[in-house]
Amino acid sequence: MQKEVCKHRLKLTKTNALKFISHLDWQGLILKIFRRCEISLVLSEGFNKMPKVSYSPALPIFVESVCELVNFQTYGELSRNFIENFKKNSPEGLNLLEIKKQGDNEPKSLENYCQWALYNAEIKKTIYNLEEIKYIIDNCLSSDKIEIEKKTKKGIIKKVNYRDSLKKIEIKDDGILSFILKTGQSDTIPAFRADEFLGLLFKNTDFSIKRTEFFDSDMKVI
């Protein structure tokens, strides 16, 4: 008799020393925790079977997050002590914020579901004063181009316009920069890395960046 397949979503932090690990290492860490929790993950079909686990879009190294998402499927319900076991086997910087059971109509791929992300950036060192920063932001919002040179798979250098990849940017009263950038996969608007965006606008400036929220294509919080 085939067991019931249950779908779940975790919301996690990736902070402190974990900001130094790659997205691939992050995926491996989550799978290692799942194995230690001894849960029965559903595997894909075919010769090379893989756990049916989906991750939110990759976070650049040196950027923290308090909203990383993981979708996974198990045979049967999770045990009552899953949350306790998950926390016990998680390193410092990885905190379980939320666990939800997913319905059958929920999107399978978080790469496609997560289309925009909110970031907060604390200015640690800068050559600009507050008025200059506001001026740069206003110029950015009024411009129809935010261009960065990128190398194609064929090795050709071309300029990519990321203006549509910026939804908003503002500086708050406490000096924190808040901005929404395109993330995930899309055929029309390119994903924009938070560190590349700030590096383009504010040269020789040191920021502490944190991803705080994901949105779908309709700008609904995920």
What can you see in these coordinates?
With 222 residues, the protein is of the alpha+beta class. Strand 2 (53-55) and strand 3 (64-75) form a beta hairpin. The chain is 21% helix and 34% strand. The strands form two sheets. Strands 1, 2, 3, 4, 5, 8, 9 and 10 form an eight-stranded mixed beta sheet that branches. It has helices at 23-36, 82-88, 110-113, 130-142, 194-201, and strands at 5-14, 53-55, 64-75, 96-102, 116-125, 147-151, 157-161, 166-171, 176-182, 206-215. It folds into two domains: 5-112, Pseudouridine synthase I, catalytic domain, N-terminal subdomain (Alpha-Beta Plaits, 2-Layer Sandwich), CATH 3.30.70; 115-215, Alpha-Beta Plaits (2-Layer Sandwich), CATH 3.30.70. The mean pLDDT is 93. The radius of gyration is 20 Å and the shape is globular. It contains five helices and ten strands; from the N terminus they run E-H-E-E-H-E-H-E-H-E-E-E-E-H-E.
Query: What value does the average pLDDT take?
Result: 93
Number of domains: 2
Derived structural class = alpha+beta
Calculate Rg over CA atoms.
Answer: 20 Å
Q: Could you tell me the number of beta strands?
A: 10
- Major sheet details: 8 strands, mixed
- Beta-strand content bin: 25-35%
Q: Percent helix among the residues?
A: 10-25%
Level-1 CATH class name of the largest domain? Alpha Beta
**Outline:** globular
The separation of the N and C termini measures 35 Å
Unreliable spans are none
User: What's the name of the CATH homologous superfamily of the largest domain?
Assistant: Pseudouridine synthase I, catalytic domain, N-terminal subdomain
By CATH, the architecture of the largest domain is named: 2-Layer Sandwich
How many helices? The count is 5
CATH topology of the largest domain: Alpha-Beta Plaits
